[in-house]
Amino acid sequence: MYVYIGSFTTTKRKARGKGISVHHVDDASGAWSLVETFETIPNPGYVALDRKQRFLFASHGDGDSVSAYAIDPQTHKLQFLNQQPSHGDNGPHLMVDPSDQYVICANGPGIVVLPINKDGSLSPATDAVVPPGKEGPYKREQGLGAHPHQVLFDPSGRFLISPDKGVDATHIYRLDLGSGKLVPNDPPSVKSRYGAGPRHLAFHPSRPFAYQINELDSTVTTYQWDGVRGTLTPVHIIPTTPATFVGDNTGAEIAVAPSGLFVYVSNRGHDSIATFAVNVTDATLTPIGWEPTQGKKPRFFTLDPGGKMLYVANEDSDTIVAFRLDAKSGLPVPTGLIVHTGSPSCIAFSD
Q1: The pLDDT value given to residue 308
Q2: Is 164 helix (H, G, I), strand (E, B) or coil?
Q3: CA 182 – CA 110 distance, rounded (Å)
Q4: Contact, 104 vs 163, CB < 8 A?
């Protein structure tokens, strides 16, 4: 198994990363070994692979482009292919659509669609939209209005979901595969609490529910998902930090265990992974533990492809820390494995 790590690189972000680093994961021991560090366009903060794992794409923090790379099938090293304008000024997230035809990128003020050529390079955008909505109350984080922070498809691949930190809403679109255009759903969005700052969302693997981490008020919202109409209905909200924590915090990442029994979120400030048990009846959440991430500012974490390990990227500590997920309790257990890399902000697995 191989791992691709996106990182921040610029002094503006007080970053220490060098680009996209490639690591090999030993099957027996789980140890990581560095294959290469590929210097890229500044701040390749989020990376994603196509479904066949032949190409890697990166969005760039504080940047106005999306870049494409070929993956060598033998060495797993990267070869730069090209870049295209993102029609925005910041790229916090991107993904490849289920048909492997387009890269969809949250570009700062909106969302851009870029066709993928047969050789993995990107063509100019077929669409770039700025969602409607009124900015939230926090001028520093929401003062510029729309700021989609994630793009992902629902389990059926029919709907594109985008939590918008700027306007306290989660937008829903359909992607026309023929034209590469985004078509707003009806209704086109669901509102969050005023000042919640919705950041990332994850679907339950087998039930019609989704969970959204709200960055600015440090909460998780449980939604009922209607996969026919493409609608999210909020049913439950819960804090991401313990009641005894009185410091500052922002929510960051969220994931659902493959079993569907547990939800994980990361806290920046409390610097923890919070674990929630999923109610078997209504899919609402109950907190069962907070595990320190052994570093500062866990911007990102992910589960390995088998769902048995959880890896946390501590952006301000320059570390990736590995945890084993206890099969019974669901709680993350430190393994002792720590990978040192500058300002990590995203982890993508290739198996």
Answers
A1: 96
A2: strand
A3: 11
A4: no
pTM: 0.97
Q: Kindly indicate the confidence band of residue 351, based on its pLDDT and cuts at 50, 70 and 90.
A: confident
* CA–CA distance, 301 with 156 (Å, rounded to integer): 24
Measured CA to CA, the distance from residue 81 to residue 85 in angstroms comes to 14
- Listed in order, strand segments (DSSP E) in 87-230 are 93-96, 102-106, 111-115, 127-129, 152-153, 160-164, 169-176, 181-191, 198-203, 209-214, 219-226
Q: Which of 120, 178, 127 is nearest to 151 (CA)?
A: 127
Q: What integer is the mean pLDDT of 72-88?
A: 97
Tokens of 240: 């991401």
Q: Which amino acid is at 66?
A: V
DSSP output for 209-252 = EEEEEETTTTEEEEEEEETTTTEEEEEEEEESS-TT--S--EEE
Tokens of 97: 């659509």
DSSP 263: E
Q: What Rg value do the Cα atoms of the chain yield, rounded? A: 19
Mean local confidence (pLDDT), 290-299: 98
Tokens 């498809």 label which residue?
153
Q: What is the pLDDT of residues 305-344, one digit of tens each?
A: 999 999 999 999 999 999 999 999 999 999 999 999 999 9
Report the alpha-carbon distance of residue 118 to residue 69 in Å, rounded.
13
